[in-house]
Amino acid sequence: MHIVWTELLKLRTTRLWWGITVSLLGLSALGAILTLVFAGDEPGFALSDETGQRSLFGSAGFNATFALVFGIIGMAGEYKQGTITPTFLAAPQRWHVVVAKALAFAIGGFLLGLSSSLLVAGIAYLGLAIKDIDVVMPASEILEIVGGQTATSAFYGVLGVAVGAVIPNQIAALIGALVEQLIAEPLLFNFFPEQARFLVGGAGSILAGAPNVGATLSLWAAAAVLAAWCAALLSLGSLITERKDIT
Hints:
Blueprint (H helix, E strand, L loop, with lengths): L1 H12 L1 H24 L11 H8 L5 H19 L2 H7 L3 H37 L8 H28 L3 H22 L1 H4 L3 H8 L11 H25 L4
Helix pairs in contact: 1-6, 2-6, 4-6, 4-7, 4-8, 6-7, 6-11, 7-8, 7-10, 7-11, 10-11
């Protein structure tokens, strides 16, 4: 438990945390405002119908990616900065460090997702009120989006740590993760939608309330898929970390 508190202290006192938080909140606010300003009148896009409002309340679409990047830098960045050696000296069983970081960045991802989702929801309510448009989305569905996006960000924080443990080179880990998420998975989804829903991005989009066309999993099933990916990659990352020569 002491290692977890140490990692949380590192997380809270680094400029990176505040930089990522401010950047995410700014992008999320911008996305919500642009949706309010440029929403059309066509069915599915109009802010007066439920589909349009779902897009508005779900416009905090950067949460998971920011949490993933944050987790990768939190783990692989220690190798780059040369701080990994004293970190491991303080906890000779290296897998304890990996798990502690995963827990710390799960909390960090949770806070990133929650703050961004609540900000977008607040802007959405205010914008609709200014436009004199009734909120037709059930409150339960809005809470589902906020909760789903928050949970997805927490999972992605863990995944970031796992990826950083598997690929200790920070640049390689960041490029690999972003290519997989932004290019490889969307391509796979076009050709194999049934199978792709069990990938990280497919399950994450379902849990966050923005599923790809044809992606069908319950929220609990999507959460279970993400948890399985976290467990598998953390196990692999812990094994690699234990065997890696740090000298």
